[in-house]
Design brief:
The structure holds two protein chains of two kinds. By secondary structure, chain A is mainly alpha-helical. Chain A contains six helices and no strands. Chain A has one domain. In chain A, helix 2 packs across helix 3 and helix 3 packs across helix 4. Chain B has eight helices and six strands; from the N terminus they run E-E-E-H-E-H-H-H-H-H-H-E-E-H. Classes of the chains: A mainly alpha, B alpha+beta. At the A-B interface, helix 1, helix 2 and helix 3 of A face strand 6 and helix 8 of B.
């Protein structure tokens, strides 16, 4: 196994872990907790908070499992990158507006939004982009064996 | 080599609930039917701005739509935060008023005038505006000399520690049939709270 493949595998597992932990942490709390986090961003209409709060954590969990298993890795990694881009943009906006938000990214009780939190989010986004690029270049085993023939 | 699909943590643990007998709050801190299927415990700090908004915007709607209809029992729990120098004395005034049958009036006044007394500490002056002079004198005496006035505050804080509180307001929704306690941190807007209470009530 080449070094690139090992690094890709590590990145894949970490990215999957991030989504699994984020989804699981939200699912184990009552859904209004995440709805309240979404509400604090002052971005979405109140009527949309419940459906998003109830479904997004399950999507994150499913996405994490998909990335970990390597099934349709290119596309799951791409979706993860898009999601993290959206999250990052929302956090940047909230920080710029000086909003007092509880990100709720990994459940309740997180530290307030600041440069450190933004740096963490940027690192996760960079990881997702790297895994996506690597997957499209064929470093993933499933990427080569399954998706390239699709 | 294919990435190994790790065994996920036990997904059966989705609902973070726990059952625990909670200390009874003083009667004046409780509103609603004792047979209500749900209890909504609100941990609040009188000096916390989010608590003020929650009490002014959300609690009246909860009382109208859920407490008066017998669906929910409402319990106020004191959780004065350390950084708020007047929060504990405000709780003393409220609880002294509660012993004299004027809890709701004084709680509303304390929250309504939070902007003033949180600056100058003059809770007494703000409470005196809504309480008859004779009752106010009794409140002052209780605040000054009743050594048990802090008992419910201490009991609420102990329960809050057990509920792993880290901010106010915090809501704990108790299923009175099963004893399950579900904690929600933060000032939940009424629309979300209503939707969740309706779901829990529908489940029975």
């Amino acid at each position: 196994m080449k070094l690139k493949q090992v690094l890709f595998l590590i990145g894949q597992v970490i990215l999957a872990g991030i989504f699994i932990v984020a989804g699981y942490a939200k699912i184990r709390e009552p859904w209004p907790q995440f709805a309240l986090s979404l509400y604090s961003f002052k971005l979405l209409p109140e009527s949309s908070l419940e459906p998003i709060a109830r479904t997004l954590p399950w999507c994150e969990l499913a996405l994490g499992i998909a990335i970990l298993s390597g099934i349709l890795l290119r596309w799951s990694a791409l979706i993860a990158s898009v999601l993290l881009t959206v999250f990052f943009a929302v956090l940047i906006r909230s920080y710029a507006m000086g909003l007092e938000v509880d990100c709720g990214c990994f459940g309740s009780g997180e530290t307030s939004l600041g440069p450190l939190r933004l740096a963490e989010e940027a690192a996760m986004l960079a990881l997702a982009v790297a895994v996506t690029v690597a997957a499209f270049r064929g470093y993933g085993f499933r990427s080569r064996t399954l998706e390239s023939h699709a | 080599m294919r990435p190994i699909l790790f065994l996920l943590p036990a997904l059966a643990l989705f609902a973070q609930t726990h059952k625990a007998a909670s200390p009874a709050a003083a009667n004046f801190k409780v509103a609603g039917s004792p047979t209500a299927p749900l209890t909504l415990e609100v941990y609040a700090d009188y000096e916390c701005p989010h608590c003020m908004h929650f009490y002014q915007d959300v609690v009246p709607l909860v009382i109208d739509q859920y407490v008066k209809t017998g669906k929910v029992r409402l319990v106020h729990r004191d959780f004065p935060l350390q950084g708020h120098q007047y929060a504990r004395i405000a709780a003393k005034y409220a609880n002294a008023a509660g012993q004299l049958g004027m809890y709701d009036v004084v709680v509303n006044q304390i929250f309504k005038t939070q902007g003033e007394w949180s600056q100058n500490g003059n809770i007494d002056g703000e409470v005196a505006k809504v309480v008859p002079p004779g009752t106010m004198q009794k409140i002052r005496e209780l605040v000054k000399s009743d050594t048990h006035l802090d008992d419910t505050v201490n009991a609420d804080m102990a329960q809050g520690t057990s509920d792993r509180l880290n901010q106010t307001p915090t809501l704990v929704i108790v299923n009175n049939k099963t004893g399950n306690r579900q904690k929600i941190d933060g000032p939940l807007p009424f629309g979300i709270l209503k939707s969740y209470l309706d779901q829990l009530l529908a489940k029975g």
